[in-house]
Design a protein that fits this description.
Blueprint (H helix, E strand, L loop, with lengths): L1 H34 L5 H5 L3 H16 L6 H5 L1 H38 L3 H32 L2 H5 L1 H6 L1 H11 L1 H16 L7 E4 L2 E8 L3 E6 L4 E5 L1 H5 L3 E2 L7 E9 L5 H13 L9 E9 L2 E10 L2 H22 L21 H10 L1
Antiparallel strand pairs: 1-2, 1-5, 2-3, 3-4, 6-8, 7-8
Helix pairs in contact: 1-3, 3-5, 5-6, 6-10, 12-13
Length: 362
Amino acid sequence: MENILRLAIVLGGCALAALAVGRAADLLARYVDAHHPETPLWGLLRRCRTPLYVVLLAALIRWTYPLTGWPALRSRSEGVDHVLLLCLIGGGAWLAVRVVSAVVESSYARYAGRSRDPARVRRVRTQVTLLMRGVSVAVGVLAAALALVTFPTFRTLGTSLLASAGVIGIVAGVAAQSTLGNVFAGFQIAFGDMVRIGDTVVVDGEWGRVEEVTLTFLTVRTWDERRVTLPVSYFTSRPFENWSRGGAEMTGTVFVHCDHSTPVGLMRAHLREFLDSCSTWDSRSWDLSVTETSPTGITVRAIVTAKDSDDLWTTRCAVREELVGWLAREHPSALPRVITAQATEPHRPPSRDAEALRGGGS
């Protein structure tokens, strides 16, 4: 009974000590964050309190549990030490990822706050996202390797595994050729500035915004809120449209089919007047001209510009609606017509020869 009570005291003391240290670190981070609002680092570091508590608790228990003197624990000390060591390795990896993530996100937030170039901000955001995923994978692999080394069986097999590492590497490389290709393509996209988070792209006839970029796949959110997931190698091996590269400004067209009697000059003047009141038009350029004619009518093309793809779509729809409505109100005869009645000869007055013949016959 005394040993159990001593164990409970040791475990409770370790938990309270770890909780006190973690709470003190959290209060310190909160205090510094309140006095230095220009950087979000300290606020982000507060997310490390849970892995810090795990590391502190595992370290304190591993150091103090022999003080209990409980024979059951003493006989199994090797297994207990091993479990606590695994907890330390896992908690340390978790803590390292959280700290690196806080530092990287803080640096990105400060850069995004100072930069006035949205394209560069999206580029850095993409690189930061892929960098953090790479760091997380590297830390996870290293922690798993350290955890495996703690098992005596793996230490005994270390020599044979090292000897066969070349063969295993070749086999794994051939088997994971596609995966490795996507990983390298992910780094190529991140640091080659091919596509960034927030870019407007067109892939397989679908246009949307790049929502997520990982080391192996890329997610595009379409205009109707569907998600199209593609391997990153798609963007390094096939051509695609990136409407945001080199600037988000875009030029669009609106086609209106009209009758031959359409007053094109008045239509052009009305388009100019409407664009002056259109909030999504960026005032860079506009035009209206007849681009095609046919036996049944003409095709009028309006050209408008906007600061990005969303505003361009809105502007095109507004121009199309306004031109059709204006023609229907002011010039309904200019709307396209399909003639289904049979053509009739126009009435002509009789010629002089015909009158002379009728006069001679009488």
